[in-house]
Structures are given as structure tokens and as C-alpha cells.
Amino acid sequence: MSGIYEPSEDTFLLLDAIESFRGKIFRRALEVGSGSGLITVALSKVSSEVVAVDISSEAVRETWRKLKSSPYAGISHTILGDMLSMFREDYIFDLIVCNPPYLPREGLEDKTIEGGFDFVERVISESKTRIISGGILLLLVSTLTGDLDEILLYLRSEGFNPYIKLSRKLFFEEISIIEAVKNS
Q1: Beta-bridge partner residues of 166
Q2: pLDDT tens digit string along 103-140?
Q3: Which of 45, 51, 99, 109 has the fewest CB within 10 Å, making it most exposed?
Q4: For residue 115, is it within any domain?
Q5: H-helix or E-strand containing 177?
Q6: Domain for residue 127, yes or no?
Q7: Does the residue 74 lie in any domain?
């Protein structure tokens, strides 16, 4: 999986957050930036339908490979695309999950790892029209992404009610899972 983000501490924290939904079944879930497909498979366990989108064709192939070898291939779709731009306006989700490339833009020109606050802001902005009232946006952020209070404030301004669901301190950063419920 050379060009695919390898699962790491952030992936495992996101898996813990998804595990907390056990017993609840979402109608339609979306993973923005499917990478290795590990999160998409986990979402399949708590959703009737799952869609995974990634800008990398290699990531889309790897996600589909994982889904095909799971019992969830029949309820899963993989799409090569840029965030939520390819979905019809009436194609909405009740759960959107994203482990964005949260490293600040520093000239690496690698969209799979670099995005910073701009990427997070775009995910939030595009999600607000693609999620049902009462739906959940699950977003992983890092202290490297930017100011956590600024991200929470932006979520509120876009019609979400956010809180920190999980957090983990690592050697050089702190990562947090924000659960943001879409207001009515």
C-alpha cells in the first residue's frame, strides 16, 4: 500500500469512536478519504449502506479489496472523487466520517497527507448540505491542524452541535475525535 495512508494512532482512535455506535444502525454512512479501507469496513458494521470516497485511485482499489473480502460488499460502494462534490443534492447521509489529511500545507503537494485547517473547513462546509438533521459528522483533528476552539466555532457556525468525543495525547501532538450533530 505504498501510496495509501497506513493505519496509525489516529485511525485506531477513529475505530474506537465508531465502535461506540454498536447497536445503532445508520441508514447511510460516508467515509471521506477512505485510505486503506479499514474505517469503511468498520462503518459497514453500523450502517445499512456505506459509501467510501477517496481522491486516490490506489486507495479506492484498496478499500474495495477490503470490502470484497468482508461480508459487507453488498452494502458498500467505493468512489474515486474529491470529497462530496460528486453526490446529487438529494443523496444525503446520516453519518459522515473523515480522518482528514490534517498536516498543515507546507509545499509537499501530497493531497493524501497535507490539508490542514483548509481541508477540515471544506469537509465541514460540504457536509452540512449532505447530512440529515440530527445526523452525525465524525471528524478527526490534531493540534497540528489548527486551534481546536476555532474548529469547534466553525462547526457551530455551519449548523452543527460539536463536542470532543475522544482524545489521545501522542509524542508530538494531541488528536481528537469531534462528534458534531447537525442541528434541525
Answers
A1: 177
A2: 555 554 544 445 677 888 999 999 999 999 999 999 99
A3: 109
A4: yes
A5: strand 174-182
A6: yes
A7: yes
3 found inside a domain: no
- Rounded to 10 deg, the angle between the 148-157 and 116-127 helix axes is 20
Does 143 have pLDDT greater than 70?
yes
DSSP 32-91: ES-TTSHHHHHHHTSEEEEEEEES-HHHHHHHHHHHHTSTTGGGEEEEESSTTTTS-TT-
Q: How far apart are CA 175 and CA 184, in angstroms?
A: 28
Q: Which residues of 155-171 are buried (b: 16+ CB within 10 A; e: fewer)?
A: beebbbebeebbeeeee
Identity (one letter) of the amino acid at 110? D
Domain range for 31: 9-182
Q: What is the CATH number of the domain that holds 49?
A: 3.40.50.150
